[in-house]
Amino acid sequence: MELVVASSVAALTAGGVYLILRMRAFAVIVGLALLSYAVNVFIFASGRLVVNEPPILDKYGDGIYTDPLPQALVLTAIVISFGMTAVLVMIALGSYLESGDDRIDLDGPRTDAEDGAQ
Amino acid sequence: MTSGGNFLIIIALLPFIGALVPGVMIRAGRNACAIFTAAPTLLALTMLLILAPRVMNGEVVHDEFVWMPQIGLSASFMLDGLGLLFAGMILGVGLLIILYARFYLSGEDPMGQFYTYLLLFQGAMLGIVLSDNILLLLIFWELTSLSSFLLIGYWKHLPEGRQGARMALAVTGAGGLAMIGGMLILGNIVGSFNLSDILQAGDAIRASEWYMPALILILLGAFTKSAQFPFHFWLPHAMAAPTPVSAYLHSATMVKAGVFLMARMWPVLSGTDAWFYIVATTGLVTMVLGALIALFKDDLKALLAFSTVSHLGLLTMLLGFGTEAAALAAVFHIINHLTFKAALFMTAGIIDHETHTRDIKRLGGLRRLMPVTFVIGTVAALSMAGIPLFNGFLSKEMMLEEASHTEWWQNPWIVPALATLGALLSVAYSLRFIAHVFFGPVRDDYPSKPHDPPAGMWASPAFLAVLVILIGVMPVLVEPLVIVAADAVTGGLDYAPHLKIWHGVTPALWMSGIAVLGGIILLALHAPLDRLWLATPRPEAKSIFDRLVGGTVALSRAISERSHNGAISRYLAIFVVTTVISGYLAWRGGGMPVQTRGMIPIPPVVWVGWMLLLVATISVVLMHRDRFRTLVVIGIIGLMISVGFVYLSAPDLALTQISVETVTIMLLLLALHYIPKTSPVESSGGRRFRDAVIAIAAGAGVGGLAYAFMLRDVETISEYHLANSYTGGGGTNVVNVILVDFRGYDTYGEIIVLGIAGLTIYALLEALLAGPAGRRLRNTDYSTDRSKDRHPLMMVVATRLMLPIAAMVGIFIFLRGHNEPGGGFVAGLVISIALLMQYMASGFAWTQARQRIEYHAMIGTGVVIAGLTGAGAWLAGKPFLTSAFGYVHLPPIEEFELATAALFDLGVFLTVLGAVMLMLYSLSRIARYAGETINVEPMDYDPSDRVSQARKEE
């Protein structure tokens, strides 16, 4: 099971890194979303993998539970990463509407830049 | 060592508190403003005088306010003889300056600001001399640099003022940085940052191998502050400040801070060859050089500035000698220099104020026109020259006495000769001040007709001039203060000194005589010497400094332009590569523990999910240019991760992930409407290959790390949470109890962040739509890619039916959250999805018209509810966010639980709901600008339309 989780994290990280190295805001946002998945799963996995023992206290259970702490951390991380994505989307959108393209680098010539500056 | 009943803390804080007042009081008039500035100063001085008798009896008063004992930070203050002397000078002269400035500043100057800066500076200075903790001292040290920057640049309209202020800040600030390093080394050697401990550890410090670096760094701080050669150049440029500032900062207080520090550290740092050669030599050079330049300055304040540099050099040299008698002379000279130099600055200010010029060559003959000023100026200048019966004579004699038997590199002549030369030059420029300003014929070309100023203006220098004569005639008056301060510097004098005027015919008397005679001769020859001086080329400190600053700026600009070229993909690549390499190096370094866990077997169905996830990820990468399809595929990834969470015992995470997934996709879809639907191919094949290599390396690194991590056990604190969840937090869903109880503070912070993100988006959009982007939106035609049937009947009906059901589910998830999977986060997301469906199906305006509660208010209410719930614990005397719970039995309902944590969770719920809605609502608001029409009817669908259309077609 560990191999499955680790390879998924690896794939998501690789995909995310490749995408954040692209030059368009949209790809970077998607890349960051992939990276968020990877990081969340990574933190979650740091509590070790346990099957069928959710951290819900049960008087009649076997007394074994998975580690609840990383879960609590990841839960808020998921919600916060949504907030972050939303802000990024808004900035990218603003930048596109202002300047006429959604390139993220400043080194290339801007198309339509004068139009936005007026 | 006795407690001061917190008096010291109050003394140090009073000026800072008082600084808030003058800026406001200026509305009540200039006199009221000055009085309210004097009040805290006077109060602090009174408190100091109450403590003074104890210090004079040899006690050391201590007051401490413990702050962070773990890292040795506490606001501890100490008052010994040296501190008393300096604090008395700072507050006493402060009072005189406040009075003087009241009359000096003109009606156009913002006087409230001036007094505020002055009090800030006074507080910082007091902090330096009263601190018992060197870290605290450093903070106050930097504060003096900052507040003096404000004071020097007070006349903002003068370029010299601004440049002088910048230069002073750069030089003293840089020295301050060096001193921080030195002080930290010192603290490390001793193991304590308390001055009292450090002063006891002199032997250990001098023996340490870190003594030299610490010494040099601390001296850099002291030398820059006290304008020692080669850092002396900032002081004359700081003379662009108003004269009260020059009199206060540049004669009495700030420039003495360096001297104070050397005196403070004297028992610890002095007594070595390094100390003698660095400090005494620097002081000697500064003394002679400063005096020489002063002689040829025509600007009254520049003359005084260089004379101050020279006298500071004298003090430094005396401390550098390292003998107790020299330290005693230094302490005495600090007092004397203060009295005559502050009086002289104020005199120069008066002359400038009355004649509108400070150029000595345009002055002369003022003796008859300004008799009061003449008397004050002459008394002070004679003291500066070191003429008997004035106080400057006494300490100068002591200095010459010490110099007369000091050997430098086994040469017995060099120090006495140079000291005499310094004294001689000092006599010359002092007498020049008197002769060329006050004597000579009355001229008829003064820029303004001079006369004596009002009494309020000359009262302060007159008071100091009286002190000059009193001390000069009866040095026994200040003897106890000098001795107690010198005791504090040296750690206890070995002999009982006696200050007197006549010491008999000593070498010092001869040297003094030579100095006076030589000075008079030099003054007589001033005119030809001045021509020679002007003809000689000299290095100009300001241009060197400017070139240095310019070079530094150019260098840092070159570095930042090369490393920070605006290509964010480049930064990200550098960052990722660096991280991967560091991770690799750490792994190569070894130290990985052995594997302690086995693998959990993988059932076949998991492979299916894994395959889906992998294929989806690869597809996202491969077709990220087709933006719409990317969004569809990314949904699969989120779904697979949710399923994974379910399988791996994390139901709460699964619920959260799947609802966040939904809103994220909606958000991106909404945004995609306004940005291009495809990305062009931009990067070359080589670059794509390079990026792929980086990405694969990063992925392999992170995956390997995760794998290694999962197969090893570590100690965690999770057991505590499992054990105390029910008994301490009253819930069986441990994850939820952690969120709302154990780590409630974190959650509280997180919902605030989320709320801020929501508000940020709203604000960004407001700004965006008001600008050119709004116009662009209005002028863009989006009608081509719009659906003909914007609000399909089936969807409208279905979402309307689903709203109450979805709301019910949300409430259910919220209520069960404490004991079963669910809680405020998930419930907030579920309800926002239910609401979003209405926006999507029935249109923005229709839904908006039915919205009763503002989302902003919802965010605020949520945060306030969570905060108040947390604060409620204070009422029970518990720390913030301690939860309470109890079980209630209300027939006929079953027993149920009431917990404050549920109320906190309600705050979380409201904030999440408000923030998510505000974000998506903001995005959809763009549609209004893009010219979308508003549907007035509940549904866009009008069957009669279709009937009439069908008829037409027939």
TrEMBL record, chain A:
UniProt keywords (A-Z) are: Cell membrane, Membrane, Transmembrane, Transmembrane helix
Q: Which Pfam families match?
A: Oxidored_q2
Q: What is the originating organism of this protein?
A: Pseudooceanicola nanhaiensis
What residue ranges are annotated as transmembrane? 26-51, 72-97
User: Where along the sequence do coiled-coil regions lie?
Assistant: none
Upper classification of the organism: Bacteria, Pseudomonadati, Pseudomonadota, Alphaproteobacteria, Rhodobacterales
GO CC terms in record: plasma membrane
Name of the protein: Na+/H+ antiporter subunit C
PANTHER family referenced in this protein's UniProt entry, alphabetically: ANTIPORTER SUBUNIT MNHC2-RELATED (PTHR34583:SF2)
Keyword Transcription attached:
no
InterPro entries (alphabetical): CPA3_antiporter_subunitC (IPR050601), NUOK/Mnh_C1-like (IPR039428)
Principal location: membrane
**Topology in membrane:** Multi-pass membrane protein
Automatic annotation (TrEMBL), chain B:
**Spans traversing the lipid bilayer:** 6-26, 33-55, 75-100, 112-130, 167-190, 210-235, 275-296, 303-321, 327-351, 372-393, 413-434, 455-478, 508-529, 567-587, 607-623, 630-648, 654-672, 692-710, 751-771, 792-815, 821-841, 853-876, 896-921
Protein name per UniProt: Monovalent cation/H+ antiporter subunit A
GO molecular-function term, one example from the UniProt record: antiporter activity
Q: What is its main location?
A: membrane
Q: What does this protein do?
A: NDH-1 shuttles electrons from NADH, via FMN and iron-sulfur (Fe-S) centers, to quinones in the respiratory chain. The immediate electron acceptor for the enzyme in this species is believed to be ubiquinone. Couples the redox reaction to proton translocation (for every two electrons transferred, four hydrogen ions are translocated across the cytoplasmic membrane), and thus conserves the redox energy in a proton gradient.
Query: Where is it located?
Result: Cell membrane; Membrane
> Does Transmembrane helix count among this protein's keywords?
yes
Which organism does this record belong to?
A: Pseudooceanicola nanhaiensis
Its cellular-component GO annotations read: plasma membrane
Domain NADH:quinone oxidoreductase/Mrp antiporter transmembrane residues, every copy? 131-410
GO biological-process terms attached to the record: monoatomic ion transport
Keyword match Cell membrane = yes
Na+/H+ antiporter MnhB subunit-related protein domain location: 795-917
